[in-house]
Each structure stands twice: as structure tokens, then as C-alpha cells.
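RECORD TYPE: inverse folding
INPUT: C-alpha cells
STRUCTURE:
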């Protein structure tokens, strides 16, 4: 009979849950098999743990997919710890993952060529590596939740997708890695969202700024006019937090900013 799950192993399982699409939480998944081998459990046991973790996710339960309803008190405790401190718990869980000899499962191929870590040493290098690891985790968590598709356009080419923050990275350190602070967007929709040309209302419907609606550029009209007022494709888990959407409207959306600070669509 297997020993009870340790808190460290539950944290690793939670981290893996964040990065795997809901439809791949099964015993034949290679990542589940690898983790099972490292913690001396069967792939079925690990898959069951991930599904039980899913039973704590409101985005999952609201669709009727309630998991096995056997989430333990420790599962709930770990869920709560991540929800209250994504930044610290993400690094801890990924370190635990590496300690099991599984390497950095959060590594992202996006933008790998833009930084040569060998050019940096000491604390600077350590900070940059940690930031890249965090970004990789956030990207995988967001893209897997949205099935690898832009939630506004449906684009499914991963190399053209961005894990976009709802509340900007610089404005909310505590929720930088919170998947509920993320949207999967195409590069053009990400740029428009990041610059405040578009936002979402509390029902996750697209709102266009006055600047965008008044711009007669054919590409802009073809790209953005059709999605005005339309609901985004909601993720399988980690639905956008309404409080984050409100902050985006207040902090970023151009219609709510002082006119003197507004940009044009062509500014970089």
C-alpha cells in the first residue's frame, strides 16, 4: 500500500496540473508517467490526484466535470497556498520538480534566443533565470487552459500566441504568475490589449476603445470590429478574475485614461 502523499509531492502534482490540458490528465500521459516513476506511485494514482485537484477548480466544477470529489485536506491546503502566493509557490514547486530529476518542466521555447545567460554571473544571472522559469510556467499554464488558442480570434499557432497579463506585470507582483490573471492572445490582440486599445467587461465581452473604433485602417477594422461585444472563449480552468478585468479597465484601457497620455495604434 502506497504511503500517504507528502505535501511536497502534492505541490509538484499541482504544478503539473497547471501545465497539462484538462483532457490529458490520464495515466498514459508521459509527464504523469515520469512523475509517477519518481515518487514511487502508479500513473493511475498520479492521474487520480490531478483529477482530484481539478475538483477544486471552480472553472472545472461549473461545467459539471467535478472530478472524483476525493480531494484531501492537504490538496485543499496546497490549492489555497498557491492562490495566495503564486510567485513563491511556483518557484518552490518547480524546484521540487527538479529535485526529483525531472528537469525544468516549465521551460518555454518562446524567445529563447534573446538572452544568453552565459553573459551574466552571480545574482543577476540567478534572477534572470528565475524570471525565465516563472514566465515559462505562466505561459504553459495559460496556453493549456485555453487549449492553445487565442481566446478572441481562435488562432491556434502556438508560435504566434502570447500568455498576456490582464493586470500588467509591473502593477501586481503577487499575481504575476496567477493563471487567472492571464489570457491566451495572438500577438496582435495581445499588443492591443496591453496598450489599452481593447479590454473586457465583467462578462468577458470585448470592448473596443474610441481610438480603435475611429481608426479607418482596413486591417484594424477587419481584425477588431468583428469581435466587438463578443464573448471570449473561456478557458477550461482558471477563468479570468473579475477584479483583474476591472483593474485592466481602470489602469490600462485608453477610454479611462487622461487624454494627454493616450497613445496611437502605431506607437511602439
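DESIGNED SEQUENCE:
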Amino acid at each position: 500500500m502506497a504511503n500517504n502523499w507528502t505535501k511536497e509531492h502534492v505541490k509538484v502534482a499541482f504544478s503539473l496540473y497547471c501545465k497539462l490540458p484538462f483532457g490529458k490528465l490520464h495515466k498514459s500521459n508521459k509527464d504523469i508517467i515520469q512523475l509517477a516513476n519518481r515518487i514511487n506511485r502508479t500513473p493511475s494514482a498520479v492521474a487520480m490526484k490531478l483529477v482530484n485537484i481539478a475538483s477544486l477548480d471552480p472553472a472545472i466544477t461549473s461545467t459539471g466535470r467535478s472530478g472524483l470529489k476525493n480531494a484531501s485536506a492537504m490538496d485543499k491546503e496546497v490549492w489555497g497556498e498557491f492562490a495566495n502566493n503564486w510567485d513563491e509557490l511556483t518557484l518552490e514547486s518547480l524546484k521540487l520538480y527538479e529535485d526529483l530529476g525531472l528537469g525544468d518542466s516549465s521551460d518555454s521555447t518562446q524567445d529563447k534566443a534573446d538572452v544568453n545567460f552565459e553573459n551574466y554571473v552571480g545574482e543577476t544571472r540567478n534572477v534572470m533565470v528565475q524570471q525565465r522559469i516563472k514566465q515559462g510556467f505562466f505561459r504553459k499554464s495559460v496556453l493549456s487552459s485555453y487549449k492553445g488558442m487565442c481566446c478572441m480570434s481562435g488562432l491556434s499557432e502556438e508560435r504566434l500566441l502570447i500568455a498576456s497579463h490582464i493586470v500588467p506585470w509591473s502593477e501586481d507582483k503577487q499575481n504575476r504568475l496567477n493563471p487567472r490573471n492571464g489570457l491566451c492572445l495572438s500577438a496582435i490582440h495581445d499588443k492591443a490589449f496591453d496598450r489599452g486599445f481593447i479590454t473586457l467587461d465583467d462578462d468577458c465581452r470585448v470592448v473596443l476603445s474610441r481610438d480603435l473604433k475611429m481608426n479607418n485602417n482596413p486591417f484594424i477594422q477587419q481584425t477588431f470590429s468583428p469581435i466587438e461585444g463578443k464573448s471570449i472563449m473561456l478557458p477550461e480552468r482558471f477563468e479570468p478574475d473579475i477584479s483583474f478585468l476591472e483593474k485592466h479597465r481602470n489602469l490600462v484601457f485608453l477610454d479611462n485614461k487622461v487624454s494627454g497620455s493616450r497613445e496611437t495604434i502605431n506607437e511602439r
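NOTES: Residues 122-145 form the longest helix (24 residues).
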